[in-house]
Amino acid sequence: MILGMMCVMISTGMATVAPGILKDAIDGLRTRQMHHSILFYALAILGVTLVTATFLFLMRFIMIGVSREIEYDLRNDLYQHMQLLSSSYYNKMYTGDLMSRANNDLAAVRMVLGPAIMYSVNTFFTFTFALLRMGMINWKLMLISLAPLPAVTWLVTRYGAVIHDRFKDVQEQFSRISTTVQENLSGIKVVKAFGREQQEIQEFEKENYAYMQQNRKLIRVWGILYPMVEMMAGFGILLVLWWGGRLVIQGTLTLGEYVAFNTYLAMLIWPAIALGWVVNITQRGAASMTRLKEVLDQVPEIQNPEKPAVASDYQIKGKIEFRNVSFGYDPQKPILKDLNFTIAAGQTVAFVGATGEGKTTLLHLLPRMHDPLSGEIFLDEVPLREFSLEVLRKQIGYVPQDAFLFSDTIEENIAFGMEETVAENVSHAAGVAFFEEEILSFPQQYKTVIGERGITLSGGQKQRATIARALGKDPAILILDDSFSNVDTHTEERILQSLREYRKGRTCILVSHRFSTIQDADWIYVLEDGTVAESGKHQALLNSKGLYYDLYLKQLIEEELHIHG
C-alpha cells in the first residue's frame, strides 16, 4: 500500500508539472522567444506525460492488486471462522444470508480497500500539489476558486450517512432474496409436489421488487450527490473565469499563468467528483463490513481446550460415561435431564423411545456438537471438554438421520473422512455397507457424480453411502442415528450381519425405531421425558412388559397394518 501511495504521489506530482511547462510556453510565445524552444517544451510535456502515465499504471496495478490480495485473505478468514462456528449458530442463520455476506458484502469491502483508498490518496495529492501551484501563481485567485469547498464538505457529510444506511438496507434485502432462492432450489421437489410454483414466483417477485425499491432509494441519494459536487466544482470555474479574466485584462496575470491556473483548476474537477464516488464506496463498504463483523465477532460456543488432556495421536478406547448430564436448546426447557449411565469400551448400546424424547440430541453431545448445560461426559475417564475437537471427532464415525451427501463422486463422498483417498479402503467401506454391488452397476462406478445432496441416489442408497463414509474413517466410536429407515429389512439384516464383525473392539451406539436393528445390542436404554426410564437387554426388557414392551407391540401392530393395508 505504501509503494502504491508513492506511485500515486509521483504520478500526481508529475501531472502538475505539465501546466507549468505550458505556462512558460505560452508566455514565451507572447515575447516571441520560442523559435528555438518550442520543440524543447513539446518534448518536455511529452516526457512528463509518459512518466505520469507509467506511475498511474503502477498505482492502479499495485493498489487494486493489493485489494484483491486482502479480499483473498479476508474471504479465507471468514470461511475459516464460519467452519469453527458451532452448529447452533447455523440453526439461527439463513444460508442465503451468509452467502450474500461472503460474496456481495466482501466485494463492497474490497472496493474500499482498493479503488476508494487509491482515489482518496490521489485526491489528496492532487489537491495538495495543484493548490500549491495555484497559490504560487495567485493566492487570492486560489482562495476565490475554493469558495464552493464548504458546500462540497456539507454535501459529502450530509449524504454520506444516508448512503451508509440505505446501502445496508439494500444488502439486507439482497440477503432475503438469496435466502428465498436458496430455499426454493433446495426444496424444489416439495414446491413441485405441492404445486406451489406460481405462489413462489409471486413471493420472489415481491422480494425482488422490494430490492429494486431499496436500490432506487440509494440511487436517489447518489444521483443527487454526484451532480451537486460537480456543480460546485463548475461554480468554482465560473468564479475563476470572472475574476481571473479581469486580472489578465488588467495585466496583473499573464495569459500563460491564467491558462495554467485554469488547467490546475480543471485537474481538481475529477477529484471533486471522485470524492463523491469515494464517499459512496466507503459508506457501502462500512455498511458491508458491519454485516461481516456480525459473523466474524461470533464466538464459537464449542471451544478447543487451551491445554488438551490427551496428545494429538491419542487412540480413543471408547468408554463413555454420562454423569448428571442435562441439556436443552432453551436452557429453561431441558430435553435431557440428569442422565447417568456408562457404556463400556467396545460395547454396543442402543437408545430407543418415542419421537421427540431426545435420542438424536443425546448423540450430538458425544462429538461435542453441543455441550451439556450441566453435568459432565467422560470418555476414557477424561472429561469430554478436555479433548481437542480434532482428536475427538477424528475418531468418531457419525451417521446422521439426514443422509447428507456432497455434489461429488461416490468415491469422494465415502472417502470424506479419510486422511487420504485409498481405493481399497473405499471399496471395503462400501462392501461392509452392502453398497458396492450397486456402485459397480453405475456407468462410472465409483467415479459417478451423484449431484447436489446425492439427488441421483435413492433414499436407501444415500443412507448406505453415509454408513460407508462413517466406516471409512475406521472410527473407535461408531454412531448410527436411525440409519436404516430407508433400507428394506432384508438389506438391513445383511448390513447388520456385516457390522457385527466390523464393530468388534469398537464402541457402537445405535438409535432406531426398528427393533430388528437394536435387538442384539449388548444393552438398551429406553428414554422417556428426557430420562432413562428402563435399561437392559432386549429379551429382559420385553419380559418386564414396561415401556419398551409397549413400544415393541406398537411397532408390531404398525407392521401388520402395513402388510395388510
Q: What labels describe this entry?
A:
alpha/beta; four-stranded antiparallel sheet; 3 domains; 10 strands; six-stranded mixed sheet; Rossmann fold; 565 residues; 10% strand; single chain; ABC transporter transmembrane region fold
Q: Any overview of this molecule?
A:
- This protein is α/β, with parallel strands linked by helices.
- It folds into 3 domains: 2-173 and 211-296, ABC transporter type 1, transmembrane domain (ABC transporter transmembrane region fold), CATH 1.20.1560.10; 320-395 and 475-564, P-loop containing nucleotide triphosphate hydrolases (Rossmann fold); 404-461, no CATH class.
- Helices cover 64% and strands 10% of the residues.
- The chain has 20 helices and 10 strands.
- It has helices spanning 2-15, 17-30, 38-84, 87-92, 95-145, 149-186, 188-193, 197-250, 255-267, 269-296, 359-365, 389-394, 410-414, 423-432, 436-441, 459-472, 489-502, 515-518, 538-544, 547-564; strands at 320-327, 336-343, 348-353, 374-379, 382-383, 396-399, 477-481, 507-511, 523-528, 531-536.
- The strands form 2 sheets. A 6-stranded mixed sheet has the order 6-7-8-3-9-10, with helices on both faces. The protein has a 4-stranded antiparallel sheet with strand order 2-1-4-5, with helices on one face.
- Helix 5 runs antiparallel to helix 10.
- The chain is elongated.
